[in-house]
Design a protein that fits this description.
By secondary structure, the chain is an alpha/beta fold. The chain folds into three domains: 2-23 and 148-233, 3-Layer(bba) Sandwich (Glucose Oxidase, domain 1); 36-142, Enzyme I, Chain A, domain 2, CATH 1.10.274; 262-428 and 499-553, Alpha-Beta Barrel (TIM Barrel), CATH 3.20.20. It is built from 21 helices and 16 strands. It has helices at 36-65, 67-80, 83-96, 100-116, 121-142, 164-169, 188-196, 232-253, 280-285, 298-301, 309-322, 359-364, 366-379, 395-415, 432-436, 438-441, 452-460, 478-493, 511-517, 529-537, 541-553; strands at 2-5, 7-10, 13-20, 155-159, 175-180, 200-202, 216-220, 225-228, 269-274, 291-295, 327-331, 384-389, 424-429, 447-450, 497-500, 521-524. The strands form two sheets. It has an eight-stranded mixed sheet. The chain has an eight-stranded parallel barrel with strand order 9-10-11-12-13-14-15-16, surrounded by five helices. The longest helix is centred in the first third of the chain and has 30 residues, at 36-65. The protein starts with a strand and ends in a 6-residue tail after the last helix.
Length: 559
C-alpha cells in the first residue's frame, strides 16, 4: 500500500482503477506560405469554429455545473477574438509569411510568457487560458480530435492538470475522481469538481507514477490522501466513509422546505451567493431562502465595453423577478485586485489588493456608478432589492454612495420611472477599519454583510491568492472572529441586521459560533444550503453560546 499526500479541493471518496488522461497533441511544422491571404482565411475559419465550440461548451458547463463554470468558456471566447491576440497572429502570417498553425503556437507562447511574468496571480492564471484557446485553434487547423478516456469502466483520472475545456468534455459517468500533479484550490479543475460534486485532489507532483495505471486507487477529496493498492482494512474504512457521505446527502434532501431553526428555536436566514441570472436554478433546487450576494461584476467581466444601463437593468430585473418576492442583495461593482478588466484602464499598481478597487472606483468614476445605481433602482420595481457597497473603510464613503443613490432616485421620480422607495442599503464588512468603526457605520445603513475572504486577508496581512502561505492564512484566527463579533454587536445595538457572505459562512465548524454571535443571515453557494441547514437544526445555542463566545476571547493556542 502506497499513500501519497496532495491537497483535497473537492470532498468525497473515489475508488477505482487509475487512468492517466490521454491528451491529443498536434504535431505542427513551420513553413513559409506563398498565399498569405488564404492562410489568414484558414486561421479565421478555425477561430470562428473555436468560438462556436467554446459557446457550446459554455452551455454544457452551465447545465452541468452552473454559471461560474460557464464563465470560464465565455472568457475563452473573448480571448479567442481578442484584437491584440488576433493582430499578433496576423502579423506572423502576413509579415513573416508563417503558416497559421505555427503563427498561433508562437503567439500563444508569447502571450503566455507575458501573463506569467505579471505580479498579479489572476493575470498569471490567464497563461493557462491562452494556451488552452490556442491549442483548440491549432487542433482545428490540424484536424486533431481532442483526447479523452478510452476506458469501459469508471476510473480515477490522473493528469498533470486539466484545462476547463478538457474537464467539461469528459463523460462524467466514467469519472470517479480527479488527481492532478499541479493545480490549486482555485484552479479550473478544482472549481468544476466542486460544482459537479466529484472528489478531487491537486498538487501530488510526480509522486503519482505512470506504472500505477490500472491499479486500484482511493482518493479522499477531504483529506488529500491518494492511496495506491489499499489493504483490506483501509478499503473497508474508506467504503464506510463513502457510504456515510451518501447517506448524509440523502438525509439532506429531506430537509428541503424545513425551517432554519435551532433546537432552542433560534432562526437564521440561509441565502445563496450567485454570479449571474443563470444561477437562479441552483438557488431553487437547493432551497435557498433568498440571495445574499449577487456579484454584479459578471456583467463587466463578460463585456468588451462598459455595460449599458439597459443591459444591467435587464439582468437585475431577471434575478428579482425570478426570485418571486424573496430578498435579493446585489453588490455594486467589485473589480480591481484579482479581477482586472482591460477597458477600465486601471493603472498598474504594486499592491492592487490595497489599491483602486470596488467602491473606490465607483466614487472616483461616478458616471460608472450612477449608471449601475439607476439600473438597480429601476429593477427594484420587480422584487425585493437590497444594494450592498463593497470595500468600505470610512463613513464618508458610505455617505457619498448614499448621496448618489438619492440623486438617482430624485432623477427617476422626475422622469416618471417607477422604483421601490424601500430598497435597503448595506455595506460589506471586509476591512478591519469597517469592523472597528462599525458602531458609526451602523447608523448609516440598513444592514452589514461580512466578506470573510477579504476580511481574513486584510486582518492577517496574508494574500488570499498565495497558496504558499498555508497555515498563515487562517480564517479561524481569533482576530477575524473578534472583528465579526464586534460588527454583530454594533449592528444589533443600532437596530440593523448582519449577515456573512464569505466562505466562512459555509464552514460548518463555525456555524454554532455564528449562531452564538447572533448572526442573522448566512449566504453561501447553493450546494452548501442543505448541509448548513442541517448544522443549524442540530445546534442548541443555550448550551453552546456562552462557551463559544468565551473561547473567542481566550488566548489563541499556538499551531
Amino acid at each position: 500500500m502506497i499513500t501519497i499526500q496532495g491537497k483535497g479541493v473537492s470532498a468525497g471518496v473515489g475508488m477505482g482503477p487509475l487512468y492517466f488522461y490521454r491528451r491529443a497533441t498536434a504535431t505542427i511544422s513551420r513553413r513559409e506560405v506563398a498565399d498569405t491571404v488564404a492562410e489568414w482565411q484558414r486561421f479565421k475559419g478555425a477561430q470562428t469554429t473555436a468560438i462556436t465550440q467554446l459557446g457550446e461548451l459554455a452551455e454544457k458547463a452551465r447545465a452541468e455545473a452552473g454559471d461560474e463554470a460557464a464563465m470560464l468558456f465565455e472568457t475563452h471566447q473573448m480571448m479567442a477574438e481578442d484584437l491584440d491576440y488576433e493582430e499578433a497572429i496576423e502579423e506572423k502570417i502576413n509579415g513573416e509569411k508563417l503558416n497559421a498553425e505555427a503563427a498561433v503556437r508562437d503567439v500563444a507562447a508569447q502571450f503566455a510568457a507575458m501573463f506569467e511574468s505579471m505580479d498579479d496571480p489572476y493575470m498569471q492564471a490567464r497563461s493557462a487560458d491562452v494556451k488552452d484557446v490556442s491549442d483548440r485553434i491549432v487542433g482545428i487547423l490540424s484536424g486533431v480530435v481532442q483526447g479523452g478516456i478510452a476506458s469501459d469502466v469508471p476510473v480515477l483520472l490522473a493528469a498533470d492538470d486539466l484545462a476547463p475545456s478538457e474537464t467539461v468534455q469528459m463523460d462524467k459517468t466514467k469519472i470517479l475522481g480527479f488527481v492532478t500533479a499541479g493545480g490549486s484550490g482555485s484552479s479550473h479543475t478544482a472549481i468544476l469538481a466542486r460544482t459537479m460534486g466529484i472528489p478531487a485532489i491537486v498538487g501530488v507532483g510526480d509522486a503519482l507514477k505512470p506504472e500505477y495505471e490500472g491499479r486500484t486507487v482511493i482518493a479522499d477529496g477531504a483529506t488529500g490522501d491518494v492511496i495506491v493498492d489499499p489493504d483490506d482494512m483501509t478499503r473497508d474504512r474508506m467504503l464506510k466513509k463513502r457510504a456515510e457521505q451518501l447517506r448524509l446527502q440523502r438525509l439532506l434532501e429531506t430537509l428541503k422546505g424545513q425551517p432554519n431553526e435551532t433546537k432552542d428555536g433560534k432562526s437564521i436566514r440561509i441565502y445563496c451567493n450567485i454570479g449571474s441570472p443563470e444561477d437562479l436554478h441552483a438557488v431553487d433546487v437547493n432551497d435557498g431562502g433568498g440571495i445574499g450576494l449577487f456579484r454584479s461584476e459578471f456583467l463587466y467581466l463578460n463585456s468588451k465595453d462598459y455595460p449599458t444601463e439597459d443591459e444591467q437593468f435587464e439582468a437585475y430585473r431577471k434575478v428579482l423577478s425570478g426570485m418571486d418576492g424573496k430578498e435579493v442583495i446585489i453588490r455594486t461593482l467589485d473589480i480591481g485586485a484579482d479581477k482586472q478588466i482591460g477597458y477600465f484602464n486601471l493603472p498598474k499598481e504594486e499592491n492592487p489588493a490595497m489599491g483602486m478597487r470596488a467602491l473606490r472606483i465607483c466614487l472616483t468614476r461616478p458616471e460608472i456608478f450612477q449608471t449601475q445605481i439607476r439600473a438597480l433602482y429601476r429593477a427594484s420595481a420587480y422584487g425585493k432589492l437590497g444594494i450592498m457597497f463593497p470595500m468600505v473603510t470610512s463613513v464618508w464613503e458610505v455617505r457619498e454612495a448614499k448621496r448618489i443613490c438619492t440623486e438617482v432616485k430624485r432623477a427617476l421620480k422626475k422622469e416618471g420611472i417607477p422604483y421601490d422607495e424601500h430598497v435597503q442599503l448595506g455595506i460589506m464588512i471586509e476591512t478591519p477599519a469597517a469592523a472597528i468603526i462599525s458602531d458609526r457605520l451602523a447608523k448609516e445603513v440598513d444592514f452589514f454583510s461580512c466578506g470573510t475572504n477579504d476580511l481574513t486577508q486584510y486582518t492577517l496581512a496574508c494574500d488570499r491568492q498565495n497558496n504558499d502561505l498555508g497555515r498563515f492564512y487562517d480564517p479561524h484566527h481569533p482576530a477575524v472572529l473578534r472583528l465579526i463579533k464586534l460588527a454583530a454587536e454594533n449592528a444589533h445595538k443600532n437596530g440593523i441586521w448582519i449577515g456573512i457572505c464569505g466562505e466562512l459562512g459555509a464552514d460548518l465548524t463555525l456555524t454554532e459560533t455564528f449562531l452564538a454571535m447572533g448572526i442573522d443571515e448566512l449566504s453561501v453557494s447553493p450546494r452548501a444550503v442543505l448541509p448548513l441547514r442541517n448544522a443549524v437544526r442540530m445546534t442548541d445555542t443555550r448550551e453552546s453560546a456562552p462557551r463559544l463566545l468565551e473561547a473567542i476571547e481566550d488566548e489563541y493556542p499556538a499551531n
